[in-house]
Design brief:
globular; 175 residues; 22% strand; alpha+beta; single chain
Length: 175
């Protein structure tokens, strides 16, 4: 009897997941703000510059949006602080003796298809803050600013525990 219940629960869960994939994709597209930094090239030097800019800007964004409760508040803070983020990027690049130009854009920017935390994000234009270093032809860093997934990851989460829903459900039923 337990096996039948487990089988039925598994089928119902899988059906629910499959039927909600399309809705989830549109929710992800419509309710997020992304962050992306495009490196000048894939040289070790340019990739290192990208990482150092990411560290500075991501930490600053964390401070700026930590009290934001929704996408609209996050958007407003990012737009109102765009000049501040440009100045901080310029200062960081100057300290690194980086002689290439950069651009910061807030708006709907193109993102290729990406896999992130076991989710697949379709290619397309997403609301985002994008920093392009030099030619912007190198590998990029990207994450989601709202909801603040990459900002949470940048904090120390060493005590975070992850579980798999079906596995936990199976253990409860079998006991």
């Amino acid at each position: 009897m337990k096996k039948i219940i487990i089988f039925i629960l598994t089928i119902v869960t899988l059906f629910s997941v499959i039927t909600n994939i399309k809705a989830k994709e549109s929710i992800i597209r419509d309710n997020t703000i992304r962050f992306r930094i495009l490196a000048n090239s894939n040289s070790i030097y340019d990739q290192n510059i990208k990482i150092q800019v990411r560290n500075v800007i991501q930490n600053e964004i964390l401070k700026l949006v930590k009290d934001c409760n929704n996408k609209e508040e996050t958007r407003k803070v990012l737009i109102n602080n765009k000049i501040h983020l440009e100045e901080l990027t310029r200062k960081t690049l100057n300290e690194l003796n980086y002689d290439k130009d950069f651009e910061i854009n807030y708006g709907y920017n193109y993102f290729p298809k990406k896999k992130y935390n076991n989710n697949i994000y379709k290619e397309g234009k997403y609301e985002s803050l994008v920093i392009k270093l030099g030619e912007g032809k190198g590998d990029n860093f990207w994450c989601i600013l709202f909801p603040p997934l990459c900002l949470l990851e940048s904090e120390d989460n060493s005590n975070t525990k992850y579980s798999f829903y079906l596995k936990d459900l199976y253990k409860k039923i079998v006991k």
